[in-house]
Amino acid sequence: MKKNIIKSIILLACASTILSCSKKEEEIDDALQTTNLVFEGNPSRGRLTDNEDRFYTNNIPNRERISAMNGNCNALDSDILNSEIEKLSNRGGGSIKIQKGSYCLRDIILRSNIHLKISPEVTINPDLSGNINNQNITIFVLGEDFPIRNVAITNLNENSTNRSTWFKSNIPPGNYGGVKFIEFGNVRNFKLSGLKLTDSYSKFSNIVLNLPASLKTDEVSKKGIIKNIFMTNMHVGYGVIQMQTGKSILCKNINGEGGITMRVETGAAGTNLVNEKTVDDIVVRDIYIKKGDAAMNFSPHRVDQGRVDVERVTAINSTHAVQIAAGFYDNNANGVNNLGTFDRRSYVGDIVVTGGYGAQIKSKDYKYFNCDKRKELIEKCYNPDKESVTDKSIGVIRDNASSNSGCENESDGGCYNIVIGEITKTNNNFVLDSLFTYPSSVVTGCSRNGNPTERNCN
């Protein structure tokens, strides 16, 4: 029964372009005969529920208007839409429908009781007009300078998993510092769904949850859904979602090519010199990565965080499927004097991993390759993100936080254990045979290789 489910996942991935497949169905059956399974811990121990009703309630008034933007990427688009949002919010709220066209937007400030309903024939671009050299750009800003409640940005059929019904966004190369599609600050009861985004390996994750301008840890975003997202050409150091803060949030059907699809990486929360958790009750379901770094990343900086519950992880030709990092002192000299952990009831399971060539390999992961291969990696040309090279998948879970990894509180610090559920490897095309990449997995005895004067770009 389990293998039938795994087979269905692989075939679905092929059909939905998550995975390029040349194998026939019977070849997949043969591959699954050597599937490796592991189960650790007790996943029934207080698992977090994923019922959407507990994360978002549509309280937005049933009033709709059509946006007056002309769809020709006009530099006035942002002013027009901001004015429409403010006027409708002042009247009590409602929906603004954005119809077919290409729109150039920047600093769109959403307000309470507003739902932006976006046609599948819409492309949203960052507004790159004016002097943007080295400037960071955010397209949609939610709750940065003031709290907002009851908001949504969705496709027209907001619960459809059919990508043809989703709206699009395009982040082109440019001289800007970085681009975020959307940043959440102090927001309650929100929904984001139905987005296909093509990046250009730009700096920043495209969906960011962070502290608001007040930096108050009791003003983080709460109660929300982010679902039905697909992003490509992601920078290895960033990815689809960066969750610095957030409580009672469901992330569902999140798909990335390149980078890390879901980063629960919480460094900004430690800037207030207080150890107050800003991440808790985070539920992640159906998360995918292809030719990237990882699908899921746990990394607490400075703060002891709450519970994260992850189920149904698929990784294709990526460095790892899951990364679990011990807490550490980051380079913020003003951060709270604490290393950071996650609640021991946090969970990740139902992990299906296919190894192969195409992974984005960072220099810090060269150490898991043998000496000859390591030299080859150092001499390779960088990918367009200028931080990674392309090579073979290393393993399934990279872990330096658990007791199994050798992490010891007091001496190493920032240690915690996450309950690991079932893992399935559909092939053995990995650098390491073990399911877990630990600090002890490092290949030692290699001579030190400096950066080459010329790289092999073939």
Describe this structure in words.
The chain is built from 4 helices and 28 strands. The protein is globular and about 70 Å long. The strands form 3 sheets. The protein has a 16-stranded mixed beta sheet that branches. A 10-stranded parallel beta sheet has the order 5-8-11-13-15-17-19-21-25-28. It has a two-stranded antiparallel sheet with strand order 23-24. The protein has a single domain, classed as Single-stranded right-handed beta-helix, Pectin lyase-like (Pectate Lyase C-like, 3 Solenoid), CATH 2.160.20. The relative contact order is 0.11. α1 (2-15) crosses α2. The protein has 458 residues and is mainly β.
Enter the CATH topology name.
Pectate Lyase C-like
- Which geometry do the CA atoms define? globular
On the 0 to 100 scale, the average pLDDT is 89
* Number of E-state strands: 28
Defining key terms:
ten-stranded parallel β-sheet, mainly beta, 458 residues, Pectate Lyase C-like
Architecture blueprint of SSEs:
Elements: H1 2-15, H2 25-32, E1 36-38, E2 64-66, H3 77-90, E3 94-98, E4 101-105, E5 108-109, E6 114-118, E7 122-126, E8 136-142, E9 148-155, E10 167-170, E11 178-184, E12 187-198, E13 207-209, E14 222-232, E15 239-243, E16 246-257, E17 260-265, E18 279-290, E19 294-299, E20 308-316, E21 322-324, E22 347-354, E23 357-362, H4 371-379, E24 388-392, E25 397-399, E26 419-420, E27 423-425, E28 436-437
Parallel strand pairs: 2-3, 3-6, 4-7, 5-8, 6-9, 7-10, 8-11, 9-12, 10-12, 11-13, 12-14, 13-15, 14-16, 15-17, 16-18, 17-19, 18-20, 19-21, 20-22, 21-25, 22-26, 22-27, 25-28
Antiparallel strand pairs: 1-27, 23-24
